[in-house]
Every structure is written in structure tokens, then in C-alpha cells.
Design goal:
Blueprint: H1 2-6, E1 15-17, E2 23-25, E3 32-38, E4 41-47, E5 52-58, H2 65-72, H3 75-82, H4 86-107, E6 126-129, E7 135-141, E8 147-153
Helix pairs in contact: 3-4
Length: about 170
């Protein structure tokens, strides 16, 4: 897919890994990209002028989601998670988690960022404060049934050509 944006043969495109694992195109490049997959679904983002991060997760109930929320979510986020009772908790958790993970991946610092301090409440394009790293933007994106996905960048954006795969 990058070949379309770079006008290069696939074998000419060299990828490198940043210090916290974020993939990048070697040398100066006119685009940044990110990808994520879970089960049978995948998301891929390409941005022409800003760093970008995406996350995709299968929405699966596990007993420890409440514990993960306790250490990774703010008080306001935990209140939102519990607003509709047990039935919606799992879906809401993964909507929050994919938004947090997309921001973390866009910034490129991995889980060295304090996840609980990255507040991502919102439904559409939402401005997010990342401590020590300026404002970022995140939005939930379409995903196949049973999955949650999000995209983030340091510039406001409108997801284009969103075509969820999998399902």
C-alpha cells in the first residue's frame, strides 16, 4: 500500500523501527503511516503531513477489564465506562482503549506515556492533551462488528477512504 503513496517499487521501500517500536519509512519521506490488526480485522493509516497512529482490537470480554480500567483510565473515563452498567462496559472499554492506543502510537513513545493521563473521552474527532507532548487529535473509526478501532494525529483530520476489513 505504501508504494501508491511513495511512487516506489515495494522492494525499494525500507522500513525502520523507532526507539519505542513505531515503524517508519527509512530516510526522509513525504508520508507517515501506522497499522494495527486483531483477529481478522486490520487498519492502516497514511498521513501526508503529520504523524499518525491507529489501533484495532477485537471486543472480547475478559475478567480483568475492570482492573485494566482502574490503572489505565481517568476517574471521568471510569465513570463513563460504568454509566450503562455491565452490558456496555466491554464495548465502551475497547472504544476507549483503541483511542488511547492510537494516540500512544501516533506520539511514538509506546507505553512509556502515562496511559491514565491521556484522556480520550468523546465520540467524534476529539482534542487530547498528552502530558509533555502538546495536543493531539483522535477519533473512533469504522470497524467490523465485534471490533473497535481509532486513529490519531497531531493535526485535526477527517478519516478518508475508511474501508474496514475482516469480519
Amino acid at each position: 500500500m505504501l508504494r501508491r503513496y511513495l511512487d516506489e517499487a515495494p522492494e525499494a521501500i525500507r522500513l525502520v523501527e523507532g526507539p519505542h517500536g513505531k515503524p517508519a519509512i527509512e530516510g526522509p519521506a513525504p508520508v507517515s503511516f501506522n497499522f494495527s490488526h486483531s483477529g481478522r480485522a486490520a487498519v492502516f493509516a497514511v498521513a501526508g503531513c503529520a504523524p499518525v497512529g491507529v489501533d484495532c482490537e477485537a471486543v472480547i470480554f475478559t475478567e480483568d477489564l475492570g482492573g485494566v480500567a482502574e490503572i489505565s483510565c481517568s476517574a471521568a473515563e471510569r465513570e463513563w465506562l460504568a454509566a450503562d452498567g455491565e452490558g456496555e462496559f466491554t464495548e465502551r472499554f475497547f472504544r476507549l482503549w483503541t483511542r488511547k492506543e492510537a494516540v500512544i502510537k501516533a506520539v511514538g513513545l509506546g507505553l512509556s506515556l502515562p496511559v491514565s493521563e491521556i484522556g480520550v473521552l468523546g465520540e467524534g474527532l476529539t482534542r487530547v492533551a498528552v502530558p509533555g507532548h502538546g495536543p493531539w487529535w483522535v477519533t473512533t473509526i469504522d470497524a467490523p462488528a465485534g471490533y473497535a478501532a481509532a486513529c490519531a494525529s497531531d493535526a485535526p483530520f477527517i478519516p478518508d477512504r475508511v474501508a474496514p476489513s475482516g469480519g
